[in-house]
Amino acid sequence: MNAVASVIHAVDATPWVMPTLDYRLLAPVLIVLGAGVVSVLFEAFLPRGARRPAQLSLVFVSLIAALIAVINLNGVRETAGQGALAIDGPGLILQGTVVVIAILGALLMAERGLDPNGDAFAARASSLPGSEDERQFTARGYFQTEIWTFFLFAVGGMMLFPIANDLLMMFVALEVMSLPLYLLAGMARRRRLLSQEAALKYFVLGAFASAFFLYGAALLYGFSGSISFAGIASSLGSKTGETALILIAIGLVVAGLLFKIGAAPFHQWAPDVYQGAPTPLTGFMAAAVKIAAFGALLRLLYVALGGMRWDWAPMLWVISILTMFIGAILALTQSDMKRMIAYSSIAQAGFILLGVVAASAAGLAGSIFYLIAYAFTTIGVFAVISMVRDENGEATHLSKWAGLGRKSPFIATLFTIFMLALTGIPLTSGFIGKFYVFTAAYASGDKWLVIAAVLASLIAAFFYMRVVVLMFFTEPTQETATVAIPSVFTTVALAASATVTVLLGIFPQPLLDLINNAGVFIR
Amino acid sequence: MNSFPWLTVLGLVPLGGSVVVALLPKSKPLLAKQVAFAISLVVLALVVVVALKFDGSSNSPYQFVEIHDWIPSFGVTYSLGVDGIGLVLIALSAVLIPVTILAGWNDVEQPQAESVGSVKGYFALILVLETMMIGVFAATDVFLFYVFFEAMLIPVYFMIGRYGGAQRSYAAMKFLIYSLVGGLFMLAAMIGLYIVTGTFNWFAILSGADIDPTTQKFLFLGFFLAFAIKAPMWPFHTWLPDAAAASKPGTAVLLIGVLDKVGTFGMIRYCLPIFPAASDFYAPVIIVLAVVGIFYGAFVALGQNDLKRLFAYSSMSHFGFIILGIFVFTSIGISGATIYMVAHGLSTAALFLTAGYLMQRRDGSSLLSDYSGVNKPAPVLAGFFLFAALSSLALPGLVSFVGEFMVLLGTFQRYIWVGGIATLGIVITAAYVLRVYQKSMTGAVGSGLEHIKDLTGREITALVPIAALTIFLGLYPAPVLNVVNPAVDTVMTLVGATNPEPTVGISSTTSQGAQQ
Questions:
Q1: How many domains does the structure of chain A reveal?
Q2: Taking the CA of residue A472 as centre, how many other CA atoms within 13 Å lie in the half-sphere pointing to its CB?
Q3: Of B244, B246, B192, B201, residue with least CA distance to B222
Q4: pLDDT digits over B67-93, tens only?
Q5: From A461, which residue of chain B is nearest by alpha-carbon distance?
Q6: Is B177's CB within 8 Å of A465's CB?
Q7: What band does A241 get if pLDDT is binned at 50, 70 and 90?
Q8: Closest residue to A475, CB basis, from B115, B180, B188
Q9: How far, in Å, CA of B135 to CA of B90, rounded?
Q10: Which chain B residues in 160-199 lie under 8 Å from chain A, judged by CB atoms?
Q11: Max CA pair span of chain B
Q12: Among A23, A161, A330, B262, which residue's beta carbon has the most beta carbons within 10 A?
């Protein structure tokens, strides 16, 4: 109560001044959110036929403009929006990566050459699955262009998340990112009931996580009297002894973020959502949400709670080990490709947590490198999954991948490269990422955590390689899927992700330079 | 110093070649074979040039050194260089690759089954593997070594999994997972080494401060586990018989003849010099395991009915000798281990290739009980088989004898009892090798074998260089010893081991003789 009173008092004492906003610093986010607003207007005023080209141009133009705006901020290191946002090296790199991944994700979502009926999204999300309505809309070749509005807002939220520098802004970013994704997850064209169930599950569990975050944020504010990360850090430094409240607060806030990352024990939503959501969206979400949420988690832990490392590190050790092993072991038992990749993404989150736990400059840089490497590989993985089809749409059951290496050696080889990268075999980006976070953790004294991670990598290798065995060493059956020929959209996304996966494995130095020159978070 | 990047070129030629082979049209398998064979000969020629330019008497044990920054953020350099040991093993790879290609000319047919890979794919993979082999033996940066060490698994994984026999998928997976166990622990140890020394460059690590013994013991285990699985040493061997049994003979030759040497090479190159205190600490345990391996492998080989598994177990026994030679810390022992590696590569090639010829003449059966009296319909085949068998049991006059003798001599210098026990292993080796020959080649001609054809010109051509090298180096091992000995002396200095003073006069003259 005292804290609240003092803040009210403080507000009373200072006369209200107009906040100063440096629009150059906010430009990347504003471009994308502004495009989202324009996109709503397109939906309202453009004729049906003109919407898709208009929306697509809007999406790609705004994303490229946002990317240029991010690059334009290179070297900036200051807070913006009255301290609510931190524009610094790591934040900009994460923001830039989100934009690039969004471009690739948009390419996947724009694909209409794979499904004979159109794109991967329902013809009309409001029609009942299996109803006459649905058949009519599908037969008439309807498709929804509202997805692009949702998409732009989600991207805006993701760009805000890693630069949010106070608890409220972080919460706003979290919601702006999540709400459109809940909706999009339920809009798959095929297996719609599964998709809708996934969306509901994602929403309900996500709402819980948001509540955790908000409650924790309230406690942190109550404790420190400030919502800004700098303020929290300074008050944590000055007050010692009152640890119970602060530990509960940290636990709740971090749990909210760990949910978005998909870390155990907050991972249950991931397999259902990955499986149910439209595949291009799953790819985008798996890659971009992880970057944004890890960015937010890193900033929160390193800036606001940096002084409490010895309190949160043990918690994250346990969570990291749990996440790696639960992800790797449960992935072994999966028979559906998308669910397997979901568990794989859980295991990968556990590996990235090694960099977070390290709580050092190397840990930050390692996590960022890993996130970038992982994001590109993930886009590639889902691009391939969206191409492997039979007459019922995507053939995600593992048995349908048997002998694919014989039928489509090129695509199977690309998928093998992605699997090798996720396993962490040298000469792929995944190896450098793994090496970097392991080194950071080892240097911070977490030797046994590294050994646990090594064991988890081994289990993970088994299920990644099982896919290779299936594709190359197994006889194709009647059931074996075929690889559909995609249009230029998916082709570009796939080529880009494969190229980055290999290049970062052989010549990682330019990216390492970029990340290392970005320095650490502004405090 | 030599400015021409010999080692890089050596590595790039087969890699480029593999791309060319992979791009050839699928409908022309013969062309793919010819191109692959030609490229492997080019590599061999380059290796001969490098070997001739190698100055055995030079003060610097590492030659053809190339150093470039690769990932400065991690202190990783693209750093190559060969000492005598590396050179000898590169030469071994360069000899065995064309031999394997020639001998396995018809091993891979145009695929009937869908899951089997194409002909050109097999030969492209062999060439990729050659690049990796050259890289792994030439790397003088721990990170670079690790990259080759791990990346090497992938071509072999596909060679077993796509082109092997009945159990290929299982065997390929087992091979990969076992190797990754070692590889990942080595990764952890390598990271630990980097944290302690701040560099990955082999020379910089050695010239840096001493690592404290406790850390050494911890890091040593990570490296050694990887090498022991690779070699393979008892009790980390169980992947090898499965992999060998499921492989094509050519794959088995490269796998056991060259790839497994990476394990023993790694022990000499990395375990001993970087972790001298730990090597000393663990040596007794390792020596015991090595001796157990000698006998275990030999006894199991004695009871095997599957030829490929038998040779795999026999190799395990031989690897016991090699590891023994390394960890007795005497010049003769380590030199002997290196010679033994070469000898074992040659004898393994001879055994697997002749056995492969034999099996191809009987629908691929690898069961010993399916063969008898082969020397009547196919005397040349039987002759080469006998030669391979004698080479395996280390008949005096063949190079394997030089290796085995030197290893035992080195062992006797330090641990007379261990030497005595290990010597008994030779007897069992003789027993199982001769048993195989007797059962398969002599006696009444088995049913179905009456009309098998003798070796063709191509098959003989592939075996002749191996036989010639086995005899030549057996009678005159000096060319190899001259380049190996300075490298071994460097290793000995780095380990801080000195050769034991001879207790009996005659031992010193023998060691002199062997070193010349």
A1: 1
A2: 33
A3: B192
A4: 888 988 888 999 998 988 999 999 999
A5: B177
A6: yes
A7: low
A8: B115
A9: 9
A10: 161-162, 168-169, 172-173, 176-177, 180-181, 184-185, 187-188, 191-192, 194-195
A11: 68
A12: A161
Q: What is the mean pLDDT of chain A?
A: 90
Question: Is residue A160 situated within a structural domain?
Answer: yes
Q: Which tens digit of pLDDT belongs to each residue from A52-78?
A: 999 999 999 999 999 999 999 998 999
Mean pLDDT is lowest, of A281-290, A351-360, B414-423, for: B414-423
B-chain residue closest to A475, CA distance: B115
Choose, out of B26, B78, B114, the residue to mutate when testing the contact with A (most A CBs < 10 Å). Answer: B114
Residue numbers of the domain that contains A49: 2-8+20-518
B154 touches chain A (CB under 8 A): yes
Regarding an ipTM greater than 0.90, the answer is no
Give yes or no for residue B516 having a pLDDT over 50.
no
Is there a contact between B191 and A450 if contact means CB atoms under 8 Å apart? yes
Cβ-Cβ contacts under 8 Å, A461 against chain B: 176-177, 180
Which one of B73, B146, B158 has the shortest CB-CB distance to A512? B73
Asked if A420's CB is within 8 angstroms of B154's CB, the reply is: yes
The verdict on a CB contact (< 8 Å) between B154 and A451 is no
C-alpha angle A19/A21/A23, rounded to 5°?
Answer: 165
Name which of B173, B176, B191 is nearest A439 (Cβ-Cβ). B191
Least CB–CB distance from B169: residue in A405, A451, A469? A469
Q: What residue type is assigned to position B407 of the chain? A: V
Structure token pair of residue A373: 């490497």
In a domain, A14, yes or no: no
pLDDT (tens digit, 9 = 90+) per residue, B171-195? Answer: 899 999 999 999 999 999 999 999 8
**Chain A hits for B221, Cβ within 8 Å:** none
What is the tens place of the pLDDT at every residue in A502-522? 999 999 999 999 999 988 888
Q: Does B22 touch chain A (CB under 8 A)?
A: no
Q: Do B154 and A425 touch (CB under 8 A)?
A: yes
Residues of A (402-431) whose Cβ lies below 8 Å from B: 403, 405-406, 420, 425-427, 431
Residues with Cβ < 8 Å from B43, sequence gap 6 or more? Answer: B10, B13, B14, B94, B97, B130
The span from the CA of A6 to the CA of A3, in Å, is 5
Q: In sequence order, what DSSP letters do the residues of B249-316 get, joined into one string?
A: HHHHIIIIIIITHHHHHHIIIIIHHH-HHHHHHHHHHHHHHHHHHHHHHHHHHHT--BHHHHHHHHHH
User: Rounded to a whole number, what is the distance in Å from the CA of A355 to chain B's nearest CA?
Assistant: 14
Query: Within an 8 Å CB–CB cutoff, is residue A476 touching chain B?
Result: yes
Q: Does A78 touch chain B (CB under 8 A)?
A: no
Q: From CA B459, how far away is CA B452, in angstroms rounded?
A: 14
Highest mean pLDDT, choosing among A3-7, A361-365, A406-410, B357-361: A361-365
A478 touches B: beta carbon within 8 Å = no
Closest Cβ–Cβ partner in B113, B157, B191 for A438: B191
Residue A200: inside a domain? yes
Mean pLDDT value across residues A394-412: 88
CA-to-CA distance for A486 and A483, rounded, in angstroms? 9
Q: Where are the alpha helices (DSSP H) in A408-485?
A: 409-423, 429-443, 447-473
Q: Are strands A78-80 and A388-390 parallel, antiparallel or unpaired?
A: unpaired
Is B57 near chain A, with CB under 8 Å?
no
Number of H helices, E strands in chain B: 22, 2
What is d(CA A59, CA A63) in angstroms, rounded to the nearest whole number? 6
DSSP string for residues in B317-357: HHHHHHHHHHHTT-HHHHHHHHHHHHHHHHHHHHHHHHHHH
Chain centroid, CA A443 distance in Å:
27
DSSP string, B379-432: HHHHHHHHHHHHHHTT-TTSHHHHHHHHHHHHHHHH-HHHHHHHHHHHHHHHHH
> Does residue A523 lie within any of the structural domains?
no
